[in-house]
Structure formats: C-alpha cells, structure tokens
C-alpha cells in the first residue's frame, strides 16, 4: 500500500454530516493532545496534513483522509477538562454516533501515552471497543520520551494491565523518531487488503 498519496477528504462536526460509509475505515482514537494527528501525519509521511497543536482540543470534528485503499479517520480527542460541557456532549455524541453507525471500520488504532498508564477515559474507550466488537490495537505513543528503564517498566505494566486481552497488539510508537510506524502501516495493510 502506498501511504504517500493521502489527501484530506472532509470534516464532520455532527453525525448527520458523516460521509456515506463505503471504503474501509481506519480510526484513530485517544484522549485530547495524546498525539493522534501527529501519528497520522507520520504514517502518511506528511508534516501537517492533520493539524497538530501543543494546545489540547484542536480536533473538534471527525476528519477523513483518503488513501486509494481506505480512509484514515481522526476522531476528536476525549478527556480534555477545559472544553465546555456542551462541547463535550457534542463530541461524545459525534464519536459514539460515528462508531455505532455500522460503518466499514476495519481497525481502531487506540492511542495512549506510553509515559503513563491509560486514564479512566482510555479504559472506558477500550472497554467500549471490546463490547462493540471493533477490532483494535493499542499504540503507545511518545516512546521517545522514555529512557530504557522507564520503557521496560511501562511495557511490563501495560502487559499486566492488558493480561485479559492477550490478542491485543501493543505497539510502542514515536512521531519523533518513527518507532512503530512500519508496524502500524503493516497492520493497516493487513486489514485493508486481506
Ligand atoms: P487533539 O487534536 O487536540 O485531540 O490532539 P492530538 O491527539 O491530535 O495531538 P497532536 O498530534 O496535536 O499532538 C499534541 C502534542 O504532542 C504536540 O505538541 C505534538 O508535537 C506532541 N507529540 C505528538 N506525538 C509525539 C511523539 O511521539 N513524541 C513527542 N515527543 N511529542 C509528540
Ligand atoms: Mg488532533
């Protein structure tokens, strides 16, 4: 699969605005500011196709990027305290509406911050994915910020935490040094072509 030829397709702020589900979709989910847009840019080898910001809460819409074989879908991040209650509700409805719409979702890349254990919101999201029967993998991002000792510690802790999900892939990732990029691309290829 060629990941170089992506283009922005559309953005939806409401469930009613979602484009029809046709091509396979690869979804990127995670809390606000965890690095979803950066991960997408790294996969696509682009500096700023998906907008990256040091300020959380940047992506408030479901954004679709088109590849010849599939769509990449950037979800609004959850768990950002400073967003107003009404915005939070809109985002929750939008994300749930998207995930529950019976679309052609082939894989959810659930992104967590490798420096920390998953938040309550992350665990809720993972639980939702399990209950909904959506195929997912966990990308543990910002791995560049961990030294060797911390990395081993976090790997151990994550393996223990996800003991009950033995078939779930955990992929350490860094948008800075590119760790994990090829592995995630491979998983996308597997679900799109297979
Ligand atoms: P929202 O759209 O607000 O939900 O955020 P997001 O999840 O799309 O995060 P975004 O990609 O905008 O990145 C947030 C911040 O984290 C930015 O300052 C990025 O430069 C930084 N960042 C993202 N990925 C990495 C990484 O792998 N390593 C390091 N060191 N920083 C990263
Ligand atoms: Mg974003």
TrEMBL record:
Domain EngB-type G, chain residue ranges per copy: 22-194
NCBIfam families (alphabetical): GTPase_YsxC (TIGR03598), small_GTP (TIGR00231)
| Domain of life the protein comes from | Bacteria
Whether Electron transport counts among this entry's keywords is no
Q: Which cofactor does it need?
A: Mg(2+)
What residue intervals traverse the membrane?
none
Functional summary from the UniProt entry: Necessary for normal cell division and for the maintenance of normal septation.
Keywords, sorted A to Z: Cell cycle, Cell division, GTP-binding, Magnesium, Metal-binding, Nucleotide-binding, Septation
Q: Which family does it belong to?
A: Belongs to the TRAFAC class TrmE-Era-EngA-EngB-Septin-like GTPase superfamily. EngB GTPase family.
**What is the designated name of this protein?**
Probable GTP-binding protein EngB
